[in-house]
Design a protein that fits this description.
The complex is a heterodimer of chains A (387) and B (202). Chain A has eleven helices and 16 strands. With 387 residues, chain A is of the alpha/beta class. Chain A is globular. Chain A starts with 12 loop residues before the first strand and ends with a helix. Chain B is globular and about 50 Å long. Chain B has one domain: Vaccinia Virus protein VP39 (Rossmann fold), CATH 3.40.50.150. In chain B, helix 3 links the parallel strand 2 and strand 3. Chain B has 202 residues and is of the alpha/beta class. The two termini of chain B are 24 Å apart. Classes of the chains: A alpha/beta (387), B alpha/beta (202). At the A-B interface, helix 8, strand 16, helix 10 and helix 11 of A face helix 2, helix 3 and strand 3 of B.
Chain lengths: 387, 202
Amino acid sequence: MSNVTTNNSSIGVVETHYHTYAQRGKEHKLESGESLGPITIAYETYGKLNKDKSNAILALHALSGDAHAAGVHKGEDNKGWWDDMIGPDKAFDTNRYFVICSNVIGGCKGSTGPSSVNQATGKPYALDFPFITVADMVHAQRHLIDYLGIENLLCVAGGSMGGMQVLQWVASYPNRVKAAIPIATTLKHSPQQIAFNEVIRQSIMADPAWREGNYYEYGQPEKGLSVARMIGHITFMSDQSMEKKFSRRLKKDQFSFGFDPDFEVEGYLHYRGANFVKRFDANSYLYITKAIDYFDLSGSKLIPAGKSIDTRFLIISFKSDWLYPAYQSQDIVRLLKKRHVDATYCELSSTYGHDAFLVEIEEQTTLIKHFLDKTFNGYMVVKNYGS
Amino acid sequence: MAAENIHLDYSIIYSIIEQGSRVLDLGCGEGDLLYPLVRDKQIRAQGIELNDKAIQECVKKGLSVFQDDIENSLREYPDNSFDYVILNQSMQEVRKVDCVIQDALRIGSKVIIGFPNFAYFKSRIMLFFRGRSPITGSLPYLWFDTPNVRFLSITDFKNFCAEKKIRIIEDHYLDDKKIVHLLPNLLAMNAVFVITKQDVTR
């Protein structure tokens, strides 16, 4: 690739900020009809907002993600979840753009969710937390954007559940979004996707340590949550990537003829499950999987029939992704054709399955970088091409 | 300023398309046809292309493009979505060519079709005297590696249009570097037609 290469430069040390709104009397009305408040949103920003506030990009995280999208926290060395894409000279170039990432409501990484303290009782919400939807997540983000004094977003971008939030932004606030980049996502959860989520939820709820959601004094339902995450990880990979990563390799030289993990793939899943328990709240997993199962912007719900919008689209899918298969991205494309929306669709070759959106950096960088350039600078870029 | 250093068929198509038109290019490749039109004539362009690398090149040029094959790509567009639908040097690679042309005529007020003429005299010579499948400048492939599935002459295409009640608004015949005026079905290597189903006169 010509002028685009993946690079290791980082945004450096970053900090998570918190914004609280929807105080008593001004509670946030949710799609379910219930109210939630006060609401705290954890967020990070990278780069500088320009004078006319026209360079703001909202990055939206997937199911278990958080506000920490790029850089490192002081004294720690784990990079943000999209650090390969956000930073100086990267796809979302922080020398040019102001990038915001916030944790979704219902989550457990600083934004209000089922593990947060319910001010009415002084205890964690647990199952008293109201059901939330992807639209509720987006409305909360809109509050944050208002608070930051930004009227229009140059771009909203994200993969998987992040992609659903991208589409929801366009459906809810079409005039405030100049460009949308939904990656490896869908207009609506399919029965297969709902089925996987139901098995994930049932495995959490089947663990006696879940205690009808009231486990906060005792510790996480580790077994159930770990199995739930193992199921998730199977769906994130492809047959091909698993073959390459594990094949039938054994952890030890021979079969144990017991039920401890013999194969590397088993060990990997156990490792992933055990790690997840340390970092993610079980009830949040229940609420968020439910939110994405409810997600459906098919038909006229994304853009009303007979209407068009000025938002430009870049839609990306991956050939080996069977959790959010390419046909679901093509459904988005078909809808945009009907509504005469300016859009680009690219189906990238990758063997990584659904995980590809986090690891296939080079081609995504080329696409996103130039797409943003055109959105930001208009035809000037086109005129300058090759000169 | 017309597009520089490009094929003769590109500059013919470039001059046909008016300022600010809505244009769909089927099989747009790396966007070399659309790019000067966007730059100079502010057209609203959409490309359709299958090749991975070509898609990336289009995006680098600031063009909007869908990765899809031509036959599956037209159904969803409402009638008259475009002023021009271009099928330049891609029609001969399409299997359901009749459906694609009819769909193109439905979604575009005008369709620009460019294709290699199978009845070009050099093809005829190769076939008649040497008994070999023709290989010419516009049909450069061997029988076993050609992407082409349709082989037609200028006369074939005109007959097709007459039979399907498609109006030919413009026709251009070209050799390697120049326009052909005489006996196009014999002397032209390539042809560019502008066709419509609508009842408008230009």
